[in-house]
Design goal:
Blueprint lengths: L1 E2 L3 E2 L3 H15 L12 H6 L3 E2 L4 E2 L47 H4 L5
Antiparallel strand pairs: 1-4, 2-3
Length: 111
């Protein structure tokens, strides 16, 4: 859980700088590979800045820890493991023929 007060970024230069930082954080140096953003696209895009004033998290490992009395109930308890996985890229069918995904796309991994 993150706590902070969001503000809309309205200055076009600050908005562009925050978009560049966001994209490049996900995909290093990707912004420079993209076509330039238009003034209309920048105007139509909302950017919020949220300074994080406070954060908290609860983390534990292992299985459930129900009360002993709960185990007498006809209610299942357990863990459902989930996995986030990066799969092979899927080309846009409208791409120019012969285009292959760039290295930064092929190298992208979650986690």
């Amino acid at each position: 859980m993150l706590f902070g007060k969001a503000r809309a970024v309205t200055d076009p230069d600050e908005k562009a700088a925050r978009l560049v930082a966001f994209i490049n954080r996900l995909f290093p140096n990707r912004w420079d590979m993209l076509r330039p953003i238009t003034k209309q696209e920048l105007k139509a895009t909302s950017v919020l800045f949220v300074p994080i004033d406070e954060a908290s998290a609860k983390i534990r490992t292992g299985g459930p820890k129900d009360d002993e009395a709960d185990y007498a109930l006809d209610i299942w308890a357990g863990v459902l493991p989930l996995r986030m996985q990066t799969l092979a890229p899927i080309d846009d069918p409208l791409n120019k023929p012969g285009l292959a995904p760039p290295k930064h796309v092929l190298d992208f991994r979650i986690g």
